[in-house]
Fold:
Amino acid sequence: MNRLLRIVALVACMGVARAGVAQIGLDELELRWKNGGDTTFVVNFWATWCKPCVAELPAFDKLHRSMSGKVKVLLVSLDSPSERTTTVQTFVKRRNLSAEVCLLNEPRPHTWIDRIDPDWSGAIPCTLILNAKHAKRAFYERDFTEAALRSTVEEFLRTCK
Amino acid sequence: MNNLVHLLAALLLTVAMPSISAIAADLPDGVKVGDVAPDFSLLNVDGKQLVLHEQTTVKGLIVVFTCNHCPYSVRYEDRINALDAKYREMGYAVVAINPNDTVAVPEDSYAKMIDRARAKKFTFPYLVDASQNIAKAYGARRTPHVYVLSRQKNNFRVEYIGAIDDAAEGTIGEKFVENAIDELIAGKAPQTTFTKAVGCTIKWKKD
Structure:
């Protein structure tokens, strides 16, 4: 049953562009990149209320559109339960975001922040870059300009060869 | 058990994978529990300086790095007022510090802090860390970010670092700061001394 739920959640998350913004648990989220093979995941944690997050979203969306063959951009919203789904969905639509957006549905952040990265204080924006096949990961608790994001990802891809 | 498995998995993942971490502006780690709390002299919204080592009548302090604009800080405003209401008489008073760069966030300016303190009827000092040196000395990284201090003979000792409680919204399970102070008042060392929470980044000045 649990497994079925996971599959449903995965499929729901994949079909996000058409079906709206899916809620996802941390286990499911981790499975995305653990089962990602040679795909490099660029996972950005953000929220609609977070100004620097919103400011850097276009850079991530552009990365998704220009490098979709090499990288998978996942925009993981940490918007709180009261702002869930409708706010984020409206936001995604209005901003015309084409990268995949998920809502992390996981209470008690103090129990899982270290699972994302032990160096993460919990402040957003932050970005995790991973490649399962090459067993490489990088974590950034900062915001990115478009140029900085591109060069960071390109540098990461170079280390995955 | 499930938590343990997760923790182990996280550790394995961290150890097994070559990892790069970068924190904005390569910030210092700051203090750890057990360290002497860095002294400060900061401007309060009442126009006066508040000096940590001059706080000789308290048993301890609840230092909260917070600000006006951050939605997580706003969500916790009433709870910070409540902490001060509950613990000031027991010797643990709240001291709030806004460390944000006001160029990046004009809403966090000193004038707006005065407005905010008045509007929300803050019962505690609300200080401005204009140089951001105090936030750096403590290792504050997000708002809100709490440091519970206990007064020692000649200084203050860091007893707890982290979140106020385990839920910015919805049902609160554990009240970390209250638990830590209750234990200190009972003459015990706090059991939980470090927690994390989602919050806003501190807006550091651009060089």
User: Anything to note?
Assistant: The longest strand of chain B covers residues 92-98. The radius of gyration of chain B is 17 Å.
